[in-house]
Design brief:
By secondary structure, this protein is α/β, with parallel strands linked by helices. It contains 17 helices and 12 strands. It is elongated, with a radius of gyration of 24 Å. One of its GO terms (biological process) is DNA-mediated transformation.
Length: 365
């Protein structure tokens, strides 16, 4: 994309009042952003009405600065390839074209060929439990080893764990941002974002400099769902953005998967609701692969490592959250001795301490 074409795209998308729907109508009528601005205002009015036509006649205030910033970003030395992808380009992702609201311009930092690889979205709570993060990381690793690209949103919790696991396999990962690519959010994941750009792909439909605005993240979720063949929700409360992603996936005709959890855990309630609504219950990566078309399975999933023989306290704890009193009743041990054993297991990373003085075992991915 040359500077003139980029300038036309940015002017079209930055014009106040021109949303994605109006922009698509203009592109359908005139063929390209450059042709839009070569047309007469009367032609615009016949397509989008007088108010938007009047706005198109004015150059957006920040257009020149944004054009300069974007050109500099594309040309700057980088450890990863940077590019733009417009609706209508030959390598625009087919999966996004099949959605109701495909983005018109994508900013890419990393390997754009990942957009054509079969993808699975793995999403979930930002305040995930350690076990939830272990599950996301392990399943993402296995899906990536099977040749699938893991797509998520770079958020804290489940998203970050999914990206980390996927980076361990050849399928790698795509992070879809709700900010500009020069403003990765959250700040705690900027190093992870750099790793993804180097070994995977960062994607955003928002121009450079876009801050983390709350309204952008639900919009970002439609791209996570749209780029993939299915969405796996690992942990989610009943009011969760992950459920929005799952709904968007279902509306686009994609598969929805969910990991069950304890009936006492609030972060399992969203997953249980999805399962009640028809999502497939997932315990292993094979559960996902078995549901998807065999031709989309590039290579076999590596078998899990043999489970270590667990000690008696882990056996007594089971997999649901449990209080110290309940463990005392189950094991017959006194509080002091049991607390010391629990601390050893916690320091060893085999259990986690939850709010309300509950304990839960961790199953490594």
């Amino acid at each position: 994309m040359d500077r003139d074409e980029l300038g036309s795209w940015l002017r079209l998308l930055e014009t106040p009042g021109v949303g994605r729907e109006s922009a698509r109508r203009l592109l359908a009528a005139f063929g390209s952003p450059e042709s839009v601005f070569a047309a007469e205002p009367g032609a615009w009015r016949s397509v989008v009405g007088a108010p938007i036509a009047a706005a198109l006649a004015q150059v957006p205030e920040r257009w020149e600065g944004l054009l300069h910033t974007t050109c500099d970003w594309l040309a700057a030395p980088s450890d990863s390839p940077r590019s733009l992808l417009a609706l209508g380009d030959v390598d625009y992702p087919e999966a996004l074209l099949q959605t109701a609201d495909p983005p018109l311009l994508l900013y890419l930092d990393g390997y754009r060929e990942l957009l054509s690889r079969p993808g699975i979205a793995i999403v979930g709570s930002r305040s995930a439990s350690p076990q939830g993060c272990d599950n996301a990381r392990g399943l993402a690793r296995e899906m990536s080893r099977a040749g699938w690209c893991v797509v998520s949103g770079l958020a804290l919790g489940i998203d970050g764990a999914a990206h980390e696991g996927a980076l361990l396999g050849p399928g790698s990962t795509i992070a879809v941002l709700g900010t500009g690519l020069d403003n990765a959010y959250p700040k705690r994941h900027q190093q992870l974002a750099r790793r993804i750009a180097r070994d995977g792909l960062l994607v955003s439909e928002y121009p450079l400099g876009t801050p983390p605005l709350a309204a952008n993240f639900p919009q970002r979720n439609r791209l996570i769902a749209g780029l993939t063949r299915g969405t796996l929700v690992v942990e989610a409360a009943l009011q969760s953005g992950s459920l929005i992603t799952a709904r968007l996936a279902a509306e686009a005709g994609r598969e929805v998967f969910a990991i069950p959890g304890s009936i006492h855990a609030s972060l399992s309630r969203g997953c249980h609701q999805l399962i009640q609504q028809g999502a497939k219950l997932v315990a292993t990566a094979e559960d996902i692969l078995d549901e998807l078309h065999p031709e989309l399975r590039p290579r076999a999933v590596a078998p899990p490592a043999p489970a270590a023989v667990e000690n008696s306290l882990l056996q007594a704890l089971g997999h649901d959250p449990m209080s110290l009193d309940a463990l005392m009743a189950r094991t017959g041990e006194d509080a002091a001795h049991l607390s010391a054993r629990l601390l050893e297991l916690e320091l060893d990373g085999q259990i986690q301490r939850l709010p309300g003085q509950l304990f839960q075992r961790r199953v490594s991915g």
